[in-house]
Design brief:
single chain, about 300 residues, alpha+beta, Arc Repressor Mutant, subunit A, 13 helices, globular
Length: about 300
């Protein structure tokens, strides 16, 4: 990356893991006979419909027999392009604009999962707490795109598929449901090999035959869109801020603490605070909330 472009640090080390390390083979996972039977029934239907997008509704239904999931969002992740919505269920209508319209039109640029995928996240099952920066749960992004959108936590499958793309399955818990317990998360981890096998097969079959993967011309349009959007993202505040101040602004927006930002850049926390104070003064904002609003206004108009 050239010196004229904003240097983006890594997605950040795992934080707030809450016992999310993989269980060993001795861990017991309880599931009723009826629930297990329904899981296999819906997965059988998912494989039976694998040549069509209908397969995704059976996959989403199958998860509901394992744990109490409020909503499911399945999307196609393209490197250097905006995510593409494939399927959703359970998202209340009053939140659809926040989660779908605003997210896919630009909000994803600050999402921990999308940032991790962009930087080569390996296939597997993850919880939001394993991916998010250390101060993410106090960030304005989390308040806007999670809490205000009716979601408090997120679990996530990511599976490689065709054309350097990945399929992501996000399982949301909102205010109406309880947070998933460790044994429930272990259960979702335990079925990850079958989920991966299904999505790996669905990619070259269901996506292509359904026409869900855009044609080359359409893809070029999306590439141009992402480049323009990423350009605006990297140039936010360029006329007023130093490069370091823009880097610090980026970290603040993504949910990194002063300590995490200092560690990423190899500078002292006091220096980070100095840069943050300077960028706030130059941009005429007084809080992270105002910085967040200014940033998304920049995205909207550039």
């Amino acid at each position: 990356m050239s010196a004229s472009r904003l240097r983006l640090p890594n997605a950040g080390s795992p934080a707030r893991l809450r016992g999310m390390s993989k269980p060993d083979d001795a861990v017991l996972i309880a599931l009723s006979f009826g629930a297990l039977h329904k899981w296999h029934r819906d997965m059988r239907e998912a494989f039976a419909h694998i040549d069509t997008l209908d397969a995704l509704q059976y996959l989403a239904s199958a998860f509901g027999h394992l744990v109490s999931i409020e909503s499911v969002l399945i999307s196609l992740e393209h490197k250097d392009r905006a995510p593409q919505l494939l399927y959703q269920r359970g998202i209340p209508e009053k939140y659809r604009e926040s989660i779908i319209d605003r997210y896919f039109s630009g909000g994803y640029l600050l999402d921990p999962f999308c940032l991790a995928v962009e930087q080569g996240l390996a296939e597997g099952f993850y919880h939001l707490e394993e991916i998010a920066p250390d101060n993410f749960f106090e960030s304005e992004y989390y308040k806007t795109y999670y809490l205000k959108a009716g979601s408090s936590e997120d679990s996530f499958y990511i599976v490689d598929t065709v054309n350097d793309s990945q399929i992501s399955v996000s399982l949301f818990q909102g205010f109406g449901g309880e947070a998933l317990k460790a044994e429930q998360l272990n259960l979702l981890r335990a079925v990850e090999p079958l989920v991966r096998e299904f999505l790996s097969e669905f990619g070259p079959r269901g996506l292509h035959k359904s026409g869900a993967i855009q044609a080359d011309v359409e893809a070029t349009v999306h590439d141009d869109f992402k480049q323009r959007l990423q350009g605006a993202f990297e140039n936010f505040g360029r006329e007023l801020l130093t490069e370091r101040e823009r880097e610090v602004a980026h970290m603040v927006l993504r949910g990194h603490s002063v300590k995490s930002t200092a560690s990423q850049f190899g500078i002292s926390p006091e220096t980070v605070r100095m840069h943050r104070k300077g960028l706030y003064l130059k941009l005429k904002v007084n809080s992270q909330a105002e910085l967040f609003a200014l940033f998304f206004e920049w995205l909207r108009t550039n």
